[in-house]
Amino acid sequence: MATRCANCPIRKLPLFKPMSEREVAFMERFKIGEMSVQSGTPLLSEGSTSPQLFTALSGFGLRYKLLPNGKKQVLSFVLPGDLIGLQAGVMGQMTHSVEATTHMTLCVFNRSELWTLFRNHAERAFDVTWIAASEERFLGEALATIGQKSATESVAWAFARLYRRLEAINMRNGITVPMPYTQQNLADALGLSLVHTNKTLARLREQQLATWSEGRLSIPDIEALEEIGLVEEKPSLRPLL
Amino acid sequence: MATRCANCPIRKLPLFKPMSEREVAFMERFKIGEMSVQSGTPLLSEGSTSPQLFTALSGFGLRYKLLPNGKKQVLSFVLPGDLIGLQAGVMGQMTHSVEATTHMTLCVFNRSELWTLFRNHAERAFDVTWIAASEERFLGEALATIGQKSATESVAWAFARLYRRLEAINMRNGITVPMPYTQQNLADALGLSLVHTNKTLARLREQQLATWSEGRLSIPDIEALEEIGLVEEKPSLRPLL
DNA sequence: CGCCTGTTTGAAGTGGTTCAAGACAGGTGG
DNA sequence: CCACCTGTCTTGAACCACTTCAAACAGGCG
Question: A158: closest CA among A173, A174, A177, A131?
Fold first, then answer.
């Protein structure tokens, strides 16, 4: 059954900006339903003009682009709290695809209501823009990583970023966080080959910097890893849609 | 002296969405001045919380990030019509720097007025979000390029994209467009070394696909170049701020 | 003229790719 | 219950696209 926004389990997590009562009330109207999908389900695809926006409530996904040469670039990992489909929402068309990596539950919003949001809820509209700018910021960081860092630095960057983000939504357990992706997914995200990604992971494991197995990532010293990955930014208080 | 928005020379270019009279009137109030800077001038820097937003009226610039290891990633080339500083505008802090590559003239807006825009001009607010989403889209494309394409494909992609964008603002002259950047700039944008970039340019020149010298880029067959660069998206009608 | 920035070229080195093959786990059908 | 998938991870070895090092050249400028 659809969770009421008032009881939204993720809204109160430390990562998210508090919402006023009026905002919660509006979101409750804006939300048209809840969706539950299995792992592997495509949520949005490149070129489509989806009538819907989603917010991930639980589970993990991937945003990616497929190239004419058959290669795949993973743009980012979708985690609980992420807004999905903003591009189609404002520009009318997706230029990347999104799919569920694990089972996911999602809030569903009506794209056509986005306009109402802009007209009547300036604060929320500002938040939407904040989210778009934040994604731009993330991609800029990813670009700098792929473009200028070594394989080891890149993997360390990705792990550290994911660890901090998961920590901020209370998914850290001791020194480990869930990581339900494959090495191929990580390779596609960092522009590396699967083989080299695997060898890089082995090296990080030997040095006790990061151990990734059975869907869980363990990081004994996150600050050391951040240093290796040349991480400069931390997740900041963000609005939730 | 300051151009009135009503007479804005770039608003009527084919690339930009028409603006209503009410919108023009608002922009005229939103705009607090005009700025003219020399080549090399830093406009915004990483970490700063600039009180201003700009729109490039003429001239060329660069957005880039500097890494702790001393390397530089160019995120994009700033062309006339581009909005600068949106990140600081909504998130309060820049995570990349922007500087002028040539002489530039810029419209200056007051960041604190951005909020007024969101409250009283929903359409314009929507446009701002559109712009943010469009930058995200571009960075996704750049990521796929750097991550998955060969050096030749990357250079072809960058050239084709710039050519089409400049064409859309009437800066094409026959088969040539202005390109006032250095090979080092391009190398930093594509995550390649200067030497290899230079050799790749030589190869494209030999094959008569693209000739870049003395600040001008000539492309005899843009569609062939787009194919080589695996270009899938074209510049689309965009709002101007 | 001397200096600076940007471009060009050659040659050597390497971080990463590609190819190949095996191990292991989970799932499926006979 | 076993044989046989298929997907993921792992490892070794050969190769090459790109980097790094080095040096020369061209144009603009005080």
Answer: A177
